[in-house]
Structures are given as structure tokens and as C-alpha cells.
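[Help] Beginner question about ligand-bound structures

Sorry if this is basic. My supervisor gave me a protein sequence and a SMILES string for S-adenosylmethionine and asked me to "get the holo structure". I don't really know what that means in practice or what format the answer should be in. Inputs are pasted below exactly as I got them.
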Amino acid sequence: MENPFRNEAFAEVGSENGLLSFLYFYHALQITPVIKTGDRVLDIACGPANQLALIARLNPEAHFVGLDASANMLEQAAITLAQARVGNAELVFGDMSVLSGIADASMDCVICTMSLHHLPDLTALSKTLRAVRRVLKSDGGFYFVDFGRLKRLGTLRFFAENKRHLQSKFFTQDYLNSMRAAFSVNELADAVALMGLNYEKYVTSMASFMVVFKSKNRRVLDDTTRELLQEMYGQLPLAQRQSFQSFANWFRTGGFNLPCELLY
Ligand SMILES: C[S@@+](CC[C@H](N)C(=O)[O-])C[C@H]1O[C@@H](n2cnc3c(N)ncnc32)[C@H](O)[C@@H]1O
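Answer (accepted):
No worries, everyone starts somewhere. Holo just means with the ligand present. The predicted complex, written as C-alpha cells, is below.
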């Protein structure tokens, strides 16, 4: 991920009108009930902050810390946050498997989106989940999402190349590499269990394309948040709203429901 062209390609697909904006919106919607008013939320491996910016906008009463080990990504992240006029987030340089500089039990919530597959091996994965447990309060919330390792190369290629006509070749290659690097659902579950906290696990039906490990929701969405969600959803291009509905259905058939329905 240290190639700036690749970083830009990644930032682009996740941007407000990018190819993956439906996916970022989906996880922002699912993450929001895990966050409470006044929370300090740590986003480990925040990358260009596309996910972070959305969640911070949806949760203006919480404070966010985005952490990443790439200076170039953090530069992109600062631009994303400034463009989205996010005032409740800061960025820090750091390694998610250590989280040095983040005090014990200082976070009410920790999130990690599409980044655990960057860890080199199972030891680093366990180390990361232990570091998360160290910085998280015992009644804290969490939400981790990543690819689940798929067995067949053809399936990996199907997902990576499905929209190749709409995405850069850097992104297609990164997509494929990322899915190849993914941990299996069981490996992820074993690591999450190390935290010693209750968790819910959801996998996309039919193929473990994506897997979510999360704490129980910590609040019911209020009317203001629902209205904001509906407004943001309405601003997505039609194709993105269609992708959102298909994706939500994919996870729903794997047992993961939306915290509120959105009017199409
Ligand atoms: C695929 S991006 C995901 C970014 C963001 N979470 C998202 O959903 O768009 C993965 C990010 O993980 C970061 N990363 C990889 N290894 C890391 C580590 N050990 N500590 C912190 N960040 C790391 C990379 O720099 C990159 O920004």
C-alpha cells in the first residue's frame, strides 16, 4: 500500500461518489449503533479515512482517532477529513499491532475496516487483537470487518474483476492481492476470541466474501441520526443505492440485519 498511485486509486473508489461508496455507507450504518454519545472511537488502519469521515459525520457527538502506519495514507486522510468538513477526528501515525501511544482502557470503541488482511501472519493478528483489548474499556464497543479467505482462485477473480471496467488496474490488482492475503473466518474468530469479550459474527451468505465481528449494539438510532442516514443514502448515485441493497441483502441472508430500513 505504499505506492502513492495505488493509495490514490484506493482513496478514489471509496470517495463520496466512488465505486465503493455503497460499501462505506453500509458499514457506517452498521457501525453507528455501536457508538454512543461522547465516545472516544479508535479507527485502526484508517487508510484514506473514507470510512472514518462518514462515521464521524454520522456521530458528531463522538470523538474519533484515525491511526495508520502509512504517512502517505494519513496525508490522504487529512484531505478527506478536511473536504468532508469533519471536525471531530484526529489522525495519528502508528502500528495497529502495538498501538503505542494509546493508553490502556482509553477507548470506548475500536473499529477496523478492511485492514486486518494487511497483517503478515497469525501472530501479528493475535497481537493486534490483544492491543485492541488493552486500549478498549471493558464495556466498550467494537466492529471489525474484512474479507474472509476464499478457497478458489476463480471466486477471488470473480469478485476482484467483477467491475474491472469501472476501476483502475491498480485497484483490481490490490483487490485480488487483498483477498489472497485474507485470513479465514475461523482464524479471525480465534483472534477476536482472545479479547475475552462477547461478540457477534456475521458472514455473507454462500461465500465468505466478507465477515463482521462486532459487539452488541450499544444504542438505538435516534430520529436525527435516522434522518441523516436517509439524507446521505439519498445522495448516493442510483447505481450505488442498488449496490447497497444487493449487498445488504447478501449480509441479511447471512443473518446480519440493518439497524434501520432506508427508503429507496
Ligand atoms: C485497505 S486499507 C483500508 C483503509 C480503511 N480502513 C478503509 O476501510 O478504507 C488498509 C490500511 O491498513 C494500513 N496498515 C497496514 N498495516 C498496518 C499496521 N500494521 N498498522 C496500521 N496500519 C496499517 C495501510 O497503510 C492502509 O492504509
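A couple of things worth pointing out: DSSP finds ten helices and seven strands in the chain. The first helix runs from residue 4 to 14. Feel free to follow up in the thread.
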